[in-house]
Records
---
Amino acid sequence: MAYETIIVETRGKVGLITLNRPKALNALNSEVLKEVVAAVNGFGANPDIGAMVITGSEKAFAAGADIKEMQAISFVDAYVQDFFVGWEEFARTRKPIIAAVAGYALGGGCELAMMCDFIIAADNAKFGQPEITLGVMPGMGGSQRLTRFVGKSKAMDMCLTGRMMDAAEAERCGLVSRVVPAGELLEEALMAAAKIADFSLPSVMMAKEAVNRAYETTLAEGLRFERRLFHSLFALDDQKEGMAAFAEKRKPNFTNR
Ligand code: CO8
């Protein structure tokens, strides 16, 4: 598929998606949605890919949903078309995906980063949910995911005032997992993704599923779910290989795909 709003590459076992609408600070319009979902589904179906990275430019990961596209939409259009429901497909991606965020991650951009499994931020990153300044509110998960990441007080602060937080604050409050110098962002994210992609794919996918389940269920159910997944991993060649390699003091070669 020829892409117009994103660049799609592979780096070894890692799929790399770069948002590429520089004139609009990577604002997320319907075309970006269609292309990102297609790219992620393509990597999901490709047995040679074990993890993905999504990134933007040094100035903007994404400055939000495309305001100019949304401007004229009526309630009926938004409701009947379930406007932007397609991003749920992105959030259901089963292979790990890291958001490498430099510059602005605002509105839908911040929400897209939060749909990923973790966020690595450049030291110039700025996160925010400024929808309130446009007369609306977050609509791609910001009120829900941000609250789970940073707690009620800070989520309310961000959603009600529309202010931005810098990378240091985002790391302090648990929104991002690491902050690195802007020039090292992509390398750091690709290295993390390559490390993940070298592990057993089913183990990685189950670990992701288990952590995500923590948001959906009680502790008792989550622990039971985790234990059952853990038990099932003993059916893998990769479990035998991983433990044998440890005992034999060598690097494992995982083959379950
Ligand atoms: N949409 C469309 N175009 C944008 C957007 C955007 N979100 N952000 C920036 N652009 C465009 C600008 O219009 C400008 O285009 P042009 O050159 O044609 O005028 C170009 O990008 C460069 O932007 P600026 O000149 O404004 O650059 P600055 O460096 O001066 O400012 C900012 C950068 C602070 C990021 C500024 O551009 C800004 O405030 N952008 C809007 C941020 C925002 O409000 N984002 C939230 C959008 S709403 C949203 O995401 C809702 C998601 C949920 C939807 C779910 C629906 C159901």
---
Amino acid sequence: MSAMIEIKNVSKWYGSFQVLTDCTTSVSKGDVVVVCGPSGSGKSTLIKTVNALEPFQKGDITVNGVSVGDAKTDLPKLRSKVGMVFQHFELFPHLSVTENLTLAQIKVLGRSTDEAKTRGLKMLDRVGLNAHKDKFPGQLSGGQQQRVAIARALSMDPNVMLFDEPTSALDPEMVGEVLDVMVQLAHEGMTMMCVTHEMGFAKKVSHRVIFMDQGKIIEDCKKEDFFGDPEARSPRAKDFLSKIL
Ligand code: ADP
Ligand code: MG
């Protein structure tokens, strides 16, 4: 299987504070990898290095064979193929749902308005929100806004989707509808790297689980091993799991 994301010996500092230490992992095409670990362990930072939202000082990352750290790389082009969904939905509040879905397609991919609309509304349908196409983000619930954010990312035809705690800012009753969309994506074969504490999701659809602590990848193993063989886990992973499971 070919690696869609290859992270090799990546280290990163904020000033003198080392936030990532020698992180190495890879995500194959079609793999769903869950990244978990305590708050402040570097999960968001690691995932943001993948689409160059955060620079890093050592190591190398390639996405679909393209080096993220290479000064010659066309980063807007690379980012357009890496969908990113954050904890806070980050839709444009002054634009309608349809405009949110089409803007980057038109500006970054150079699609016509019609083309972008067709694609955007298809993705909106996929997340079950066609009826809301003319609304503004503020008129939607948090769960609906997050589903629009996912549809917006999918409208760009990404090779890979990155999620950073997409459900942790949601009211509990809305978590399920967002996870359902992510489960469906996983089943359709999307390559996904998901920072989440939703271990039900991890158990259901992930292929691998990465556990981070203090900027290091402490565990990187098959889901079956992570959940099925607690005795083999590091003390820190065990402690973390005992708190969230
Ligand atoms: P996580 O997502 O696992 O909670 P983060 O990647 O957000 O962790 O942060 C890892 C560490 O880096 C934390 O100690 C955090 O305080 C620190 N950090 C994050 N962003 C910055 C920044 N822009 N400048 C300095 N330190 C930062
Ligand atoms: Mg985080």
